[in-house]
Design brief:
By secondary structure, the protein is of the alpha/beta class. The protein contains eleven helices and 13 strands. The longest helix has 65 residues, at 324-388. The protein is elongated and about 155 Å long.
C-alpha cells in the first residue's frame, strides 16, 4: 500500500549577502587551504600591484586574485597560457556573488605530485584528529625555559636567538640541533624533539634540579623559507605524529607567511616566520618590568598609607598618655554634669509627687462619694432583678410546684403513676395529693 507524500517543506528565505557569507564559510571550512594546477588566462596586473587572472583546464575555469603582498614574492613573471600551481583559499566575492580563489603563492608546474601527496597526507591526518583545535594548548604567558629545534647553520637560528635575546634575555634557551632539509631531516628532527620531550618532562617532575635541567615550558620548531622541496621534511607523517605527542605547547615557525606544512597544522600554534615564533613565546622584558614597577609602586603606596595611619594613631595615643591631667579634668567635668542631671531629675520627681498628693487630697472625698453612690445603685438594680426571679411570685398567680416524696420536681405526667403520693406547694403552704389517673394533653 502506497501513501501519498506530504507537501514539501518551504525553503528558507535568505538575504543575498547572508547566503554569500554562508557559502564563503562553507568553502573555508571544507577546502582551505587548497592548491590548484591550471593554465593562466586573462592575466592582468593593476596599478595597485594586485594581479587578476583565471586558472583553467579542459573541464573548468576559476577566477583568481593575487594581492600585492603575495605578488611581490613571485620569482617569475606569469603569462597567459603558462601552466602553474597556485596555493591559497577559496572564497566568495560578495559584491558580484562570484566564486573567487585568493592566491597566496604561485609557481610553475612541475611540483604537482608533491602537492597531491601533501593534500592526501593532510586529509588523512585531519580525519584522524591530529589537527583538532580542541587538543591544542595555549602558550605559557611567561615560560621558565624555551626549547629550540633548528639547524645550527640556518639563518632562522640567528633570527630566533636575536629576538629572544632582545625580548627575554633572562629566559634560558635549550637548543637541540637537527637537519631541516633533505632525506635525513625528518628522523633528525624527530630525534631532536624526542630529546627535548625528555628534558621537558624531567624539568617538570617534582623536586627536579633546575640547575641541571632547566624547566622547558614551550618548544620552537623553526626553519627559514624555501621551495616546497626545501620544506618537504616538515610534511613527514612520522614527524607529524611526534609533534602531537609534545608534553608542552609547540610552536611551528617554518618558511614564510604563505608557506604551509603538515607540521604547522599539528603544532599547537603556527607562526608565519621563525622570528614571529620567537616573539609569540617571549613577551618583552620591558613589559614585565613595567608591570612589576607598577605593582611595586602600588605596594609602596599601600604600605606608606598604612604607616601614616599607624603614625596618626600613635600620635593620638601619645597625646592622651602625655597629659593625664587633661583626661582627669574631662572625667571630672563629665561627673559633675551627671551629678547635676541626677539632682535635677530627683527634684522634678518630688515636685510631681507633691502635685499628685495635692490633687488626691482635693478630689478624694468627691471621688469616694461618687463611687459609693455608683455601687449602691448597682446593688439596688441587682436586688430588683433577684426579686423578680422569686418563684413565690409565680405561685401567687395560682401556680403550684409539684414534687415527689424525695423532693424532686415533677415536670411531666410520665413521671407520675396512679396511686403515687405527690406534694403541691402553693403560695401560702403545701398540699399532699394522690395521683388517680395521669392524662397527657
Amino acid at each position: 500500500m502506497f501513501e501519498r507524500p506530504g507537501p514539501a517543506a518551504a525553503p528558507r528565505i535568505w538575504e543575498v549577502g547572508a547566503l554569500c557569507r554562508a557559502i564563503a564559510d562553507a568553502l573555508e571550512a571544507r577546502f582551505n587551504p587548497v592548491a590548484v594546477r591550471g593554465e593562466i588566462t586573462g592575466f592582468s596586473r593593476a596599478s595597485s600591484g594586485h594581479c587578476y587572472f583565471s586558472i583553467k583546464d579542459a573541464n573548468g575555469q576559476l577566477r583568481c586574485a593575487m594581492f600585492r603582498r603575495a605578488a611581490t614574492l613571485l620569482d617569475f613573471s606569469p603569462r597567459d597560457g603558462e601552466l602553474v600551481e597556485v596555493r591559497g583559499r577559496l572564497g566568495v566575492y560578495e559584491a558580484r556573488g562570484d566564486l573567487q580563489f585568493i592566491v597566496e603563492s604561485m609557481q610553475r608546474a612541475g611540483q604537482g605530485a608533491l602537492f597531491e601527496q601533501f593534500l592526501r597526507l593532510k586529509a588523512q591526518l585531519e580525519a584522524e584528529g591530529l589537527f583538532d583545535t580542541a587538543r591544542k594548548r595555549p602558550l605559557p604567558l611567561q615560560p621558565r625555559g624555551i626549547g629550540l629545534v633548528t639547524s645550527t647553520g640556518a639563518a632562522a637560528l640567528h633570527d630566533v636567538v636575536t629576538a629572544l635575546r632582545r625580548r627575554v634575555p633572562h629566559i634560558p634557551v635549550v637548543l637541540v640541533p637537527a637537519q631541516v632539509q633533505g632525506v635525513a631531516a625528518p628522523p633528525s628532527i624527530i630525534a631532536a624533539l624526542s630529546k627535548l620531550y625528555l628534558l621537558a618532562q624531567a624539568g617538570q617532575a617534582p623536586g627536579a634540579d633546575w640547575t641541571k635541567n632547566p624547566p622547558i615550558d614551550v618548544i620552537l620548531l623553526v626553519r627559514g623559507g624555501g621551495s616546497i622541496e626545501d620544506l618537504w621534511a616538515f610534511n613527514d607523517e612520522q614527524l607529524a605524529r611526534t609533534i602531537v605527542q609534545s608534553p608542552v605547547p609547540l610552536v611551528s615557525g617554518v618558511g614564510h607567511e604563505t608557506d604551509f606544512t603538515i607540521a604547522d597544522f599539528c603544532a599547537d600554534l603556527r607562526a608565519p616566520t621563525p622570528t614571529a615564533a620567537a616573539e609569540l613565546v617571549a613577551q618583552p622584558r620591558d613589559v614585565w618590568l613595567g608591570a612589576l614597577g607598577l605593582l611595586a609602586g602600588r605596594i609602596s603606596d599601600g604600605v606608606q598609607r598604612q604607616i601614616d595611619a599607624r603614625h596618626q594613631r600613635l600620635d593620638q595615643a601619645a597625646a592622651r598618655l602625655g597629659r593625664p591631667s587633661g583626661l582627669v579634668a574631662r572625667q571630672q567635668l563629665q561627673l559633675a554634669r551627671l551629678a547635676q542631671r541626677m539632682r535635677h531629675g530627683v527634684l522634678l520627681k518630688m515636685q510631681r509627687l507633691v502635685q499628685v498628693q495635692q490633687a488626691l487630697e482635693v478630689n478624694f472625698p468627691q471621688a469616694l462619694q461618687r463611687s459609693v453612690a455608683q455601687h449602691t445603685e448597682r446593688l439596688d438594680r441587682a436586688a430588683l432583678r433577684l426579686e423578680l426571679l422569686d418563684p413565690r411570685l409565680v405561685l401567687q398567680r395560682g401556680y403550684a410546684l409539684l414534687t415527689d416524696t424525695s423532693g424532686q420536681a415533677v415536670t411531666s405526667v410520665r413521671q407520675a403513676q396512679p396511686g403515687d403520693a405527690l406534694r403541691a406547694t402553693l403560695a401560702d403552704g403545701a398540699v399532699d395529693v394522690t395521683v388517680s389517673q395521669p392524662r397527657l394533653l
